[in-house]
Specification:
Length: 195
């Protein structure tokens, strides 16, 4: 199950990178055409805006999986393992509730905008609002899996704090995790360390 999730997250990362590349080409090409040749790509702004929205939500999913969201862990980091587990469970349950609210709202907005066409591309505006559905379902699955791992005792102690204090701390934790796993001959992406 976890290997499938890791592969899915890698695929989402690649999709986000592709979206970013398309955005750069569209925006840069539009600027060059507009100022250099007094023309432009008509759908550049609209498509770039849509890609940016999707890229943000999909990137947030990957960050949720990798525990890369920034937060303050000053209090939780000092708690004993039982306290960390309780705080993690509470935070995961609160996030599940927020995702449920996001899912409900996104479904309503997607239905409302199903027949509304975008001004330039003519595509349904439901495409934009459906990203909330994708994020809520994907994030909910990730949280449910983490809650299951927490309740069955398969969550490592370093996974009990679900946020990083800073980007540097997140990068350092990832490097140290990979180094420790490679020294032990384990797969750093697998929760049980299996190759």
């Amino acid at each position: 199950m976890n290997r499938w999730i890791d592969r899915a997250c890698r695929a989402v990362e690649n999709l986000v990178a592709l979206m970013l590349a398309v955005m750069v080409v569209l925006v840069f090409g539009n600027v060059v055409l507009r100022y250099g040749f007094n023309s432009g790509i008509t759908l550049s702004e609209e498509v770039s805006r849509w890609l940016f929205i999707w890229m943000t939500f999909l990137g947030a999913l990957v960050a949720l999986h990798e525990r890369a969201h920034l937060g303050v862990d000053m209090v939780v980091g000092r708690l004993p393992p039982t306290g960390k587990k309780l705080c993690l469970l509470l935070s995961q349950l609160l996030m599940l509730y927020m995702l449920w609210l996001l899912l409900q709202g996104s479904i309503v907005q997607t239905r409302i905008n199903w027949d509304v066409e975008a001004p330039v591309t003519g595509l349904s505006m439901a495409i934009v609002y459906s990203v909330g559905i994708v994020f809520a379902v994907g994030g909910g699955l990730l949280l449910l899996i983490d809650i299951g791992r927490l309740l069955t005792g398969r969550l490592r102690e370093d996974e009990l704090v679900a946020v990083q204090e800073s980007e540097e701390a997140a990068a350092l934790a990832q490097v140290l995790g990979h180094a420790q796993a490679s020294q032990a001959g384990q797969n750093p992406h697998h929760p049980e360390g299996r190759p």
